Amino acid sequence: MRWAQAAFQADGVKVWLEPVKVPHWVRGEGRGRVLPSERTRGHTLSLLALGGSVGTPEGGLSAEVVEVRSLDEVVALGDKVKGKIVFFNHDMAKTEDYGPAAGLRTRGPSAAAKAGAVGMLIRSLSTASLRTPHTGALSYEEGVPQVPAAAVSVEDAQLLHRLLAQGPVTVRLELGCQSLPEADSFNVVAEVKGREKPREVVLLGAHLDSWDVGTGAHDDGAGVTMVMETARLLARLERAPRRTVRVVLFMNEENGLRGGRGYAQAHAAELGEHVAALEMDAGGGKPQGVALRAGAGAAACGIGQFSRRQHEAAADRVEGFAPDHVALRVRRHQDHAVGMSRQGTVEVEDQVALGVEAQLAQALGMQQAASAARARTPNWTCPALASSAVTASPSCQALPAGTHSSPRSARAFPG
Q1: Does position 392 have pLDDT exceeding 80, yes or no?
Q2: This prediction's pTM
Q3: First CA to last CA distance, the chain
Q4: Measured between alpha carbons, how far is 207 from 3 in angstroms, rounded to an integer?
Q5: 191 catalytically annotated
Q6: Which value, in Å, is the radius of gyration of the alpha carbons in the chain?
Q7: Pairing label, strands 14-26, 149-152
Q8: 201 in Cβ contact with 244 (< 8 Å)
Q9: Are 219 and 281 contacting, i.e. CB atoms less than 8 angstroms apart?
Q10: If residue 262 lies in a helix (H) or strand (E), which one and from where to where?
Q11: Which residue among 253, 254, 279, 349 is the active-site one?
């Protein structure tokens, strides 16, 4: 935080810190082992506790494993789950599978606990693996017993599947997780004041926190670098953007979203003045395209609409989220986030991307960039981006195609 603040100051960008309270969760040591039986020898599992998990009882716990592939299957098994460790297996073979699998990770522990399970395991959310487990956050339901939960590597998940096909399997689980009193932290906020409409805000976001077991270089150091550099370049322009461009480096995105909620509370009086919000949180890979999802008018121009599952997932994270929000995001190499599937044809997608690029540049008052983008795109327009409210229900149009090229990098979410 202090580094980011100092970097903005060195670049001549106005910056300040906004306090937020964040959860203080400590992972501790974690171990798992398939216990030996008449059929098989013992095997040490490569695993990581899920973020926010409770620890196991002192000395660990041992229980038979029951394999499921959905939350509904847990309910259907009924008493067969009682006293067991529920193992959520899935087939995440491509990046688009991340969203559905993440739902199992987030809600799986409480679903298992409701059925009487004593623990939960899940196959790591990854399309490739070197026996490296992949952590991530869970969410305990209020009023439901909290059971320890961990992700196992893809290879060990496949092993569990094979062993369970042959007969009962017992796993010993030891997790030293604990939650301590909340800690004081900060969002880092910087801005370049607009020249014509300074009260209207275009927000550029990224998050400073990362999981303890990684470097955070891609998630989200790359995004932090992108938005900070954007602020630096805008501050050096002789002609400031039309609207205020505000950069927010959020704290606690990974396991609580306290930074995002804290910003919304601190700026409640001016949220209506936020005309667009773009977040960079897709790693530092090579941009491969732009995906745009919108509300009921999306089909008119070949844009994918939010699916029921995507809307529910977004509503869980963004208070007040509605199906007519617009979400624009970059598609990057090896990105595993929700909403990465291609919609419509390449031609439509490229046209939309360049049209959005032109409109965003226009909103920022970057006339030269807007003209350049508009010259390479057909007469595409989306009222949701052209209006002052990003939540307006779009009735986008794609008129006869002109020249177009590869889309640029951008990602936007509701303000």
Answers
A1: no
A2: 0.72
A3: 23
A4: 14
A5: no
A6: 23
A7: unpaired
A8: yes
A9: yes
A10: helix 258-266
A11: 253
